[in-house]
Amino acid sequence: MPGIGVILNPYSKRYKKNPDEVKRMAFVVGDKASCKATEDLHDLRRVAEEFKTRDIDILAISGGDGTNHCTLTTFIQVYGEKPLPKIVLLRGGTLNTVANSLGIWGSSEKILSNLLVKYHEDIPFETREVNLTNVNGEYGFIFGVGVVYNFMEAYYAHTDLNSLVAAWTLFRSIASALVNGPFARKMFDRFDAEVMVDGKKIPYANYSAVYSGSISQLGLGAKTFYLVDRYPGKIHACCFSLPPRNILPYVPWMYFGKPNGSPNMIEQAASEMIIKPSKPLPFTIDGDMKPPAHEFRVTCGPKLTVLVK
What we know:
CATH topology of the largest domain: Tumour Suppressor Smad4
Low-confidence stretches: none
Oligomer: single chain
Distance between the termini: 21 Å
Mean pLDDT: 90
Order of helices and strands: EHHEHEHEHHEEEHHHEEEEHEHHEEEEE
Shape: globular
Number of strands: 17
Structural class: alpha+beta
Radius of gyration: 20 Å
């Protein structure tokens, strides 16, 4: 039996606070050669090559959205044309938006224990097919420039990161937008760009945000990317050119996954989105903060098989 490969990020908040949990996870797996705590991207690539050679059936990832993004990007690069193994998201990070969106709940140990029991006893898994988002050759599920990046930057400015801090950052943004305050103005700082969605130019000269997702949730339970479920094989591309106060009437519609009807916001199920900003912009993939880029090509795929139960 080729087996299960487990990737742990020892620098995630969970394992930094409780380093002994790395050993405990290895104990749960049983086969120490299958459970790897990777120190950096070079180490991650080495493990990916090892798991490819072993032809593992299942890749389990523990460490949150950023760890998922880095791990999947590396494995796609290493595997090349070879199909990826089935994926299990063990949660365990500061941000678990992808796992939440796919209905994966529980502690890392509980999810992993359930996986091992089913695997060794040959019990069928419940699976979900989900597309990744390809951003300039890096892979994740949520991409954003403008407001989405600025929100994450404000969130990461806190020392203790959790869902309550994320909710507080959102509340602070909304409260500042009501009075057109400096926090909201900074969050909604506009940028000039040319945006093409499936070959059609978006008719705005500047933007507050351009973002997309290949899962339904943006974060904090917001079903922002509702078109993903309606149009399999597409990303939900979105861009808007609105000042802070003007976006507020549309926030409930965006949160609950409904068309908002704003004339200054375009949402579309798309295969490709190309963004050419007038100056390089920093961006985020799954909460991972990236340095400025001159251009972004955002496409849908490849498809993953994720074990959810």
